[in-house]
From TrEMBL, chain A:
Organism: Octadecabacter dasysiphoniae
Protein name: ABC transporter ATP-binding protein
Matching Pfam families: ABC_tran
Keyword Mitochondrion: no
SUPFAM superfamilies tied to this protein: P-loop containing nucleoside triphosphate hydrolases
GO MF term list: ATP binding
Annotated CDD domains: ABC_MJ0796_LolCDE_FtsE (cd03255)
SMART domains, alphabetized: AAA (SM00382)
PROSITE patterns: ABC_TRANSPORTER_1 (PS00211), ABC_TRANSPORTER_2 (PS50893)
Record flagged with keyword Coiled coil: no
Automatic annotation (TrEMBL), chain B:
Cellular location(s): Cell membrane
Membrane topology summary: Multi-pass membrane protein
Domain MacB-like periplasmic core: 442-622
A Pfam family of this chain: MacB_PCD
TM ranges: 220-243, 263-294, 319-343, 364-384, 390-416, 437-457, 666-688, 709-736, 756-773
Location of the ABC3 transporter permease C-terminal domain: 222-346, 664-782
Keywords: Cell membrane, Membrane, Transmembrane, Transmembrane helix
Name of the molecule in the record: ABC transporter permease
Main localization category: membrane
Length: 218, 794
């Protein structure tokens, strides 16, 4: 099992005391599987994604990625998991503005020591970015920036791809193109994909769906 | 409406207290350093003025005797002959200078301020009271005479009436000198016809002490100005950032119908209030700086020039006023561009939270062109300009030009670093550092100026020290110096000493104008002491041999520059023409000096006989000879000077000078360090969107924090590398341009690599300390805060 989440709890401090976000989530994901995480705003989708990606720590429960309990790791250990096993695509793209498109795409792969230039060139070509490699993120459109973000994630060939509404900032046509590319490439790299989305249309294209309601699996 | 607008504007400071703190502290520190230095200068100058007024030295002619004292009977004879003179008795009482004056006959202006007013009436000075500052009074024993503390008397001086002074100094019936009132009867017998052995010394036309110490004060003022400039960079940065961050509020207020004029007015008033508060804090801090530095400054000036300066500080209203004015002026200067921009901002100008940083990047080309223009102007002024104004113009153009050039140069260096980077982290590090440059530029400019000021001033002071000690070696080549009280004793001393030492070198001089400038003519003996030790700045071939042969003269640099005399030109001494064969350095001497050989001097000035002698002898024999002379001739300690003692004293004086400049160096660097800290803290919040993705991709917060420190060190080192040539250029301008224009002599420049290396270490330490807090803050940023970057909450 690539991802195994057991009895996961998470709350944040609110003005009236602890605000429960996740309340006993259980889920699992195999390599090559795709899963849509849906639910109302505030249902805990992004929080679950952050916990699975080692970006945040649960109050209790276990998150195992590729057999590693990331809740038991220290900061450096979680950083290593993020670097080596997980790739995250954000809604806001979150590219590094000081680096060129080419450097942005190669960034995580080089961090993880998996800098495969042939694969990166292929990815860039598939994403239609071959002519944009020397440009800076601010010189690209929103759709192009999101394609760079996806390419960056897949360049490192992570076992688990996490995507937080990756097409939320894009128009429908661009969103479809980006989604097609992402699904193709995930399949090509045999990675698992966990995607948060509000879109029924996009959720329908995923292998499975997990619906959250008030921090619980509905 | 105004109230609502004000509330909206002020809410920015409540949300950004660190920014307000930066603004207030930056302005306070700038004002503190400036007003502190001004306070030290003002206090020292007030002390000279009090001294000059007490002694009447600057304003009035004086009658002195060749024997050193004037019999009181001679004074009475002069008064009866119609000479309007006033007696002065002067001597040392427990090491303090005691001066007795006759308040009834003394011309107005020689008593200290206040003696003719209120309770300090003329009657009181005739009744045997000792007037002095409390500090001075504390230094003397109880002589059974009434004392009265008076802060207006010069420091280190006790003032009393002639009779009391004569009694305390054991000088009954004797006077030290007579002050000549400016208004004298039209018909008056010549002095020599009334009494013999007296001569009139004309008024000195201003205090020599003030003139001599001007160099020191000029340096301090320049330092104060640079420190202020460093502080103003902080203020400029804080105001610029506040304007950018308030753009959305300003846009909204205008969209809601708030008039632009009133908006600009409100912001101006807001800045005025902030600058007045910061200015008041700054003057208070400046007082503390001055109070801490003044004892060292007083000791330095006293040691260097023999001028007494009060070691305590008085609060003077003009400091408050000037401190507040400079704070308001500095704020106005720093805010002018932002206010202008605001007044011209289109209503729909978009809110750009990072516009402040980005705009700096876009304007880099213009900035580079401006910097180049200023640096070329500085070079042209150095090459073609003349006068003190050109010197200061060159300094200003050089410093501002270099500060403006800094971001452009750093950008190019960082771009080069990025192009050579091999690893992904190195690539990101260089690129990210380059991106941060606009936000850090002002702080780095402040650091550049602070370091350049340090390099410049320490090079100048250290060069001064080396030159002056070398100069002492040259001038004090003899191992021992003796001073006779009169011609008779001088002759006896010479006869006694000649068989006992290797060589007796008489020192004799006469005052004479050279090309209309007051000068001293010296006639040293032809001896290897002078040939080997006196080094010329410029000389004709075989200069010493020809001077010793009576073919010409050597002159000091001051005379050469002021009278525009070059090697080979001729000067007239006592009606005879002499070719100038050598020009020598004569540091600190305000007037001209000429050297001819002893035999020539004796023909020119047959009536002058030497009272001073330099003795060449084995240094170890000096103490025994001193005891012998005291026993045989009754020579006082003051009449015998051991060369080693003078040199040790001089070095001590310079070490005190270093204490003052060293303290100012540290303060200026601290201000620059503060600028970096505040910039990094401000950027820390703005940088989260740039750092969060890197963190998300597998870097720990701790590592990001460490990288922030490395970045600060790199930028500090690069700035230090640029500050070194700038500082040396500053030192060269001060030594070769400003000093020459202001004082007539040029100091040679020496380099002190170890000092510069130490300064670079200090700068790096300051940068590390400044980066430590933001780095620690970053390392401890909660993941939840980093995650906000990825959510819609931002």
């Amino acid at each position: 099992m690539l991802l195994n989440v057991t009895n996961l709890y998470k709350s944040y401090a609110g003005p009236d005391g602890a605000l429960p976000i996740l309340q006993g989530i259980d889920m699992a994901l195999e390599r090559g599987e795709t899963l849509a995480l849906t639910g109302e705003s505030g249902s805990g989708k992004s929080t679950l994604l952050h916990l699975v990606g080692g970006l945040d720590q649960p109050d209790s429960g276990v998150v195992e990625v590729d057999g590693v309990d990331i809740g038991a790791l220290d900061d450096a250990g979680r950083a290593a998991v993020r670097r080596d096993k997980v790739g995250v695509v954000f809604q806001q793209f979150n590219l590094i503005p000081s680096l060129t498109v080419g450097s942005n795409i190669a960034f995580q792969a080089r961090l993880a020591g998996r800098d495969d230039t042939v694969w990166i060139k292929k990815l860039a070509a598939r994403m239609g970015l071959s002519n944009q490699m020397e440009k800076y993120p601010e010189q690209l459109s929103g759709g192009q920036q999101q394609r760079v973000a996806i390419a960056r994630t897949l360049a490192a060939k992570p076992a688990l791809v996490l995507a937080d509404e990756p097409t939320g900032n894009l128009d429908e046509a661009t969103a479809d193109t980006v989604m097609d590319l992402m699904l193709d490439l995930v399949a090509e790299t045999e990675a698992a994909l966990l995607m948060v989305t509000h879109s029924e249309r996009l959720a329908a294209r995923m292998g499975r769906r997990l619906h959250l309601r008030a921090g619980r699996v509905a | 409406m105004t109230k609502a607008g004000l509330q909206a504007l002020l809410s920015h400071w409540l949300r950004n207290p660190v920014q307000l703190f930066t603004l207030v502290v930056g302005l306070s520190l700038a004002t503190a350093l400036w007003s502190g230095v001004q306070a030290v200068n003002a206090e020292a100058r007030a002390s000279y003025d009090a001294a000059a007024e007490t002694l009447g030295e600057g304003q009035f002619a004086q009658i002195t005797a060749t024997t050193g004292t004037i019999p009181q009977a001679d004074y009475i004879k002069l008064r009866r002959a119609g000479w309007r003179v006033s007696p002065v008795v002067e001597g040392r009482l427990d090491g303090v200078r005691l001066i007795g004056i006759d308040a009834l006959t003394s011309p107005g202006g020689i008593a200290p301020v206040g003696l003719n007013e209120g309770d300090l009436t003329v009657d009181m000075i005739t009744s045997g009271i000792l007037f002095a500052t409390q500090d001075t009074l504390d230094q003397i024993e109880d002589y059974g005479v009434q004392t009265l503390p008076n802060p207006d008397v010069a420091p280190g001086v006790i003032l009393t009436d002639v009779g009391t002074a004569q009694r305390l100094l054991d000088m009954d019936g004797m006077l030290s000198r007579l002050i000549v009132a400016p208004a004298q009867p039209v018909i008056q017998p010549p002095l020599a016809d009334v009494v013999s052995g007296l001569s009139v010394r004309p008024p000195q036309g201003g205090s020599d002490v003030a003139r001599l110490t001007d160099s020191f004060h000029l340096n301090l003022t320049a330092f104060g100005l640079l420190s202020f400039a460093v502080g103003i960079f902080i203020v400029h940065g804080a105001i610029g950032l506040a304007f950018e961050q308030r753009r959305p509020v300003i846009r909204t207020l205008r969209a809601l119908g708030f008039p632009l004029g009133r908006l600009v007015g409100l912001i101006a008033v807001e800045l005025l209030v902030i600058s007045l508060i910061a200015g008041a804090i700054g003057v208070g801090l400046g007082y503390i700086v001055a109070a801490a530095l003044l004892p060292d400054v007083a000791a330095t000036i006293s040691g260097l020039y023999g001028a007494s300066v009060s070691g305590t500080l008085q609060l003077r209203p003009e400091w408050w006023l000037s401190g507040l004015l400079i704070a308001v002026g500095g704020t106005a200067m720093a805010a002018a561009a932002s206010l202008w921009q605001l007044a011209r901002m289109p209503l729909l100008a978009s809110a750009r939270p990072r516009a402040w940083a980005m705009q700096a990047g876009r304007g880099r080309l213009t900035q580079g062109a401006l910097a180049l223009g200023l640096l070329v102007t500085a070079m042209l002024l150095g090459w073609l300009g003349s006068g003190l104004a050109a010197g200061f113009g060159m300094l200003a153009a050089l410093l501002i030009g270099a500060a403006l050039a800094l971001p452009v140069v750093l950008d190019r260096v960082l771009a080069f670093g990025a192009s050579r980077a091999k690893s992904v982290m190195a690539e990101w590090f260089w690129a990210d550092t380059r991106q941060q440059l606009p936000g850090l530029s002002l702080a780095l400019m402040a650091l550049l100026l602070a370091m350049a000021a340090n390099v410049g001033v320490s090079t100048m002071v250290s060069s001064f020290r080396l030159t002056f000690t070398g100069f002492l070696d040259q001038r004090l080549a003899s191992e021992f110096y003796v001073y006779a009280d009169d011609a008779e004793q001088a002759a006896a001393l010479r006869t006694y000493l000649e068989p006992r030492v290797d060589k007796v070198l008489p020192i004799q001089s006469a005052d004479q104008g050279v090309r209309g400038l007051p000068s001293e003519i010296y006639g040293p003996t032809a001896h290897a002491t002078y040939r080997d030790n006196w080094l010329f700045l410029n000389a004709a071939p075989d200069a010493w041999a020809r001077i010793e042969a009576g073919e010409g003269a050597a002159i000091n640099e001051q005379l050469a520059r002021r009278a525009d005399i070059a090697i080979g030109d001729e000067i007239t001494l006592a009606g005879r023409q002499f070719a100038v064969l050598g020009i020598y350095g004569d540091y600190g001497n305000p007037i001209g000096q000429v050297i001819v050989t002893e035999t020539t001097f004796e023909t020119l000035f047959p009536n002058v006989s030497p009272l001073r002698f330099g003795l060449r002898m084995t240094p170890g024999d000096v103490p025994a000879l001193a005891v012998e002379l005291r026993d045989t001739f009754g020579l006082a300690e003051a009449n015998m000077v051991n060369q080693a003692g003078i040199k040790a004293f001089s070095l001590d004086v310079f070490d005190r000078t270093f204490t003052v400049t060293g303290a100012l160096n540290v303060l200026t660097l601290a201000v620059a360090g503060f600028a970096i800290l505040m910039s990094l803290l401000t950027l820390a919040t703005m940088r989260l969107p740039q750092l969060a993705p890197v963190w998300a991709q597998g870097l720990t917060r701790a590592r990001l924090g460490r990288i922030e420190i490395i970045r600060a060190v790199l930028l500090a080192l690069l700035t230090a590398a640029l500050a070194l040539p700038l500082g040396l250029a500053l030192a060269w301008t001060l030594l070769a341009v400003v000093n020459v224009e202001a004082f007539g002599w040029r100091l040679p420049m020496f380099l002190f690599p170890l000092d510069y290396a130490r300064l670079a270490v200090f700068a790096v330490v300051a940068a590390v300390l400044a980066a430590l807090w933001p780095a620690r803050k970053l390392a401890r940023t909660r993941p939840a805060d980093l995650l906000k970057v990825f959510s819609n909450e931002r």
